[in-house]
Amino acid sequence: MTDGSHKTPKRSHAVEARNLTRQYVNGTFTALEDVTVTLQENEIISFIGPSGCGKTTMLRLIAGLELPTRGQLLTFDEPIHGPGPDRGMIFQAYTSFPWLTARKNIEYGMKVVGIPKAERKQKASAMLKLMHLEKFEDSYPHSLSGGMKQRVAIGRTLAQNPRILLMDEPFGALDAQVRWEMQEMMIEVIEREHKTVIAVTHDIEEAIYLSDRIIFFSAQPGRIKANIPLEFKNGRRFPRKEELFEQPGYTDMERRLFAMMREEITGSTA
Ligand SMILES: Nc1ncnc2c1ncn2[C@@H]1O[C@H](COP(=O)(O)OP(=O)(O)O)[C@@H](O)[C@H]1O
Ligand SMILES: [Mg+2]
Predict the structure, then answer these.
(1) Which residues line ligand 1 (CB under 6 A)?
(2) What distance in angstroms lies between residue 21's CA and the mean position of ligand 2's atoms?
(3) With 70 as the cut, is the pLDDT of residue 5 above it?
(4) Does 131 lie in the same domain as 103?
(5) S-S: 71 plus which of 9, 20, 79, 110, CB 3.0-4.6 Å?
(6) What local confidence, expressed as pLDDT, does residue 6 receive?
(7) Residue whose CA is at the smallest distance from ligand 1 atom 26
(8) How remote is the CA of residue 56 from the centroid of ligand 1, in Å?
């Protein structure tokens, strides 16, 4: 360094929460309490925990769809005051417009964030390809399967080029087989697009497969029970799920998370 300091270049903090608390019902119900966590740029993080532990609330706070009761929440060092094009949200329910074709749905997402027309067309083609939807670009959502509809929604959000992709149980409504196909496609997409991804799930296998790190929330009030980097993956993201299952350490991790989940649900480890 030329200035003589010994600072290492700082990796950007995609999200930083400090003592974040979110209450409802005039402060009588605490959904999230004292959450302090830092999520790095280019990380894939899963929020996992029992139903009602505040996963969706945490995601909505990051999306700016609601505001903290107490504490601080920053994205790339800026306080979050509301939604912004830097954070794209994908919901569980398919959110495509039924009156627009797959292509037009994707183009519409870009129009909303002010991307010029010529670029919209070009980028939509790239997205349709990435989502394996080229053959269905002129189809309307009602004629598409659940997995395809969700791919349209993901493609539309990705085409807006957010820095952070927020996903709330994105594959929760899909059949098991479509679900793992979507998970594998997501790995391909994230690697290609270099996104920071925060995914909510209650599916342990999905969390281990998709993430570099898992944040485990305890039940009511939601607090961080564990912050678990998946070291056994050695920073790798596997294109195929069976490669994950072959990794030494996979079964132990699955068992550990299952035990934590049981502990939260029943209040015992027995
Ligand atoms: N707008 C709201 N008003 C009152 N309670 C809410 C509201 N939103 C969420 N909650 C409550 O906060 C808790 C956490 O909800 P949520 O974040 O949806 O949990 P999860 O996604 O982990 O299942 C739940 O008990 C839920 O009922
Ligand atoms: Mg939820």
Answers:
(1) 24-25, 29, 31, 51-57
(2) 17
(3) no
(4) yes
(5) 20
(6) 60
(7) 52
(8) 7
For residues 171 and 180, give the distance between their C-alpha atoms in angstroms, rounded to a whole number.
9
CA nearest ligand 1 atom 7, residue = 24
The reported pLDDT for the residue numbered 171 is 86
> CB-based burial of residue 193 (10 Å sphere; 0-12 exposed, 13-18 middle, 19+ buried)?
middle
Look up the pTM and report it: 0.91
Are 103 and 229 in a shared domain? no
Span 85-127, pLDDT tens digits: 999 999 877 678 899 999 999 999 899 888 999 999 999 999 8
pLDDT in tens, 193-218: 889 999 999 899 999 999 999 999 99
d(CA 13, CA 49): 23
How many Å apart are CA 210 and CA 167, to the nearest integer? 12
Domain holding 70, by residue range, is 13-86+166-266
Each residue of 138-169: pLDDT tens digit? 999 999 988 889 889 988 998 998 999 999 99
User: What's the CA-to-centroid distance between 106 and ligand 1, angstroms?
Assistant: 30
Q: Tokens for 111, please give them.
A: 């129009």
Centre of ligand 1 to C-alpha 26, Å, is: 14
Domain end call among 109, 131, 161: 161
Q: Which atom of ligand 1 is nearest to the CA of 66?
A: 1
Residues 127 and 220 in one domain: no
